[in-house]
Structures are given as C-alpha cells and as structure tokens.
Amino acid sequence: MSGGRFLVTGACGFIGSWVTKQLLDRGFEVTGLDIVDRSDRQSLVLSAAGLKQVHRVRGDINDTALLVRTIRKGWVSHVIHTAGLQTPECRDRPIAGASVNVSGTLSVFEAVKACRDRVTCVAYASSGAVLGGDGPHSSPLPDSAPRNPGTIYGVFKTANEECARIYWQDEGIRSVGLRPPVVYGVGRDQGLTAGTTLAIRAASLGQPCEIAFSGPANVEYVEDVARCFVDCALKSPEGAPVFNMCGEILTVEAMIAVIEEIFPAAKGTITCAPTRLPMANHVSDAGLQALIGPFCPLSYREGARKTAAMFRDLG
Questions:
Q1: Is the torsion defined by CA of 230, 231, 236, 242 positive or negative?
Q2: Would 61 disulfide with which of 104, 124, 243, 315, CB 3.0-4.6 Å?
Q3: Is the pTM of this model over 0.70?
Q4: Close Cβ partners of 291 (under 8 Å, ≥ 6 residues apart)
Q5: Is residue 282 scored above 60 in pLDDT?
C-alpha cells in the first residue's frame, strides 16, 4: 500500500520504532522526528535498507515551528505522536514530564492546526494509566469509563485526551487516542513495565532479572500495538475518540513461567517485586475493534517467543 506520508514523533523510541517499521512495510513514506540523533532501537527493529528510507529530523517536540516546517516540507498527511517520557521520569521530574508529555502534545496539535490543509488525522499515545488501578468492577471497563489516574504520568495522559477533545470541538482536528497497556518486545528498555521485555533478554543471556511489579497485567506485543496506531491514523474517524487496548491479561508470575519454558536454564533466576501496577487491566477494546476491524492480538506465549527469537538473532 502506498500514497500516504507520515510524521512519527518519538521515532527513535520503542513504540515509535515499531510504528516506523509498520509504515515502511506497508509502503508509506516516513519522516521521523526525535530529540536524539541516534537510531539504537530502530536498528534493532529495522533492516539496513529500512533505516535508510526514514527521513530523519532532529528536534524538540515543543518546537512548533519546526513541526510545521517538517509537515509542510514532507507533505505529511498523517501524524502518529508517540514522543513522551515514561512513568518513572514523570514521577522524578514532573516539570520535564509535563513539558514533554503535555506541552509537547499541544505543540503537535498546534502544528496540525497550522497545516490542516494537509494533515488528515493525529493518532497519539495516551495510556491505560488514565484509568488507574483495577477496582471492584465485574466486567471490562469501556472506553468511556471514568478516568482515575494513580500517577502523575496518568494525569498528563488524561490532560492530553481532554486537549484532543477540545481541538476537535474548537478547530475540527480529527484525532485518535490509544491507551496502550503493558507493551513488550525488542527495543523496550525503559519505563516501569519494561521488565516484561528485559526478563526475556536476561534469560537469553543467562542473567538474572527482577521485574519491577507483580500480580495481573494487561500485556500486548508491540507489533500489534504499532499496527493499531497505523490503522487508526488511516481510518481518520470524525471526532476525537480514545480507545482502550487489550492484549492478554495474566500475572507476572505466569509470564515468568512462559520465559522459563522458552529458556529452561533461567528457572529461578527471574523474580518480581511485590508492587502492583497503577493501571486498570480489565478493559474492553470493543471500540477499537469496531473502528479498524476485528483482530486477535498475539498471546503472551506467542509474543514472548517472537521476542526471544529476535534477541537470539541479534546476538
């Protein structure tokens, strides 16, 4: 498929790298904007040829003028906004977190407003953290469930969802917000929930690892998540909908058992801390599936095996 031109913000990050791969695999032109001038994660995900296909722009997400120039120069038709700081960084440096996660998102919307003659839609990364922890509910939470973030990171993402709503209300800018759960796969090396990937890497190297949380978690393989971002951007629905994402819900202890199946020598070397995630796990992704069509995300067993195989190939 070809014809669309995409700007990916945070293109050198974990999800941004996989979104870039998904776009290139489908034949789209990609401009990648990031504040770092490195492609460490992208080099894990993209081929050498793929790396050369990305039009790179180095810059701050808060530089609205740069975003406008980039959109116009690249004839960008869709923006996928994944730039942001993770939960621990927002907790430890809340002002920097607000600058990147909230002000940076406003900068993206302002740039799109200035280029509304070209840009069809913004697909942006919200988070399952906006819903807070699991409560006493007996059925999966819908997209419209009350938001109750338990972290400053979740508060920032909640603000972004409301800003997107106002940009549709006041400016007619179409957007889709996605709420990724615990996302794992090659390239995930930062953030509170990175342990689900780091443990696979450690097991492949014969090293011990402690996952920083325990209990149940909603986990989704990064390739499935990237596909959803691209599909949502292409659908460009009217309004500013926000959708839950649901992979597989299982305990960290069960994930460790899967890793031990893949790497029997790792038995007893992967542990988990008693901390529980401040994120609702039992959510419904019916809205997302209604927009982009029915799909079945990979199970953790399948996704972990794919991740392990990639780590083996990378050496």
A1: negative
A2: 104
A3: yes
A4: 176, 231, 232, 235, 237, 241, 243
A5: yes
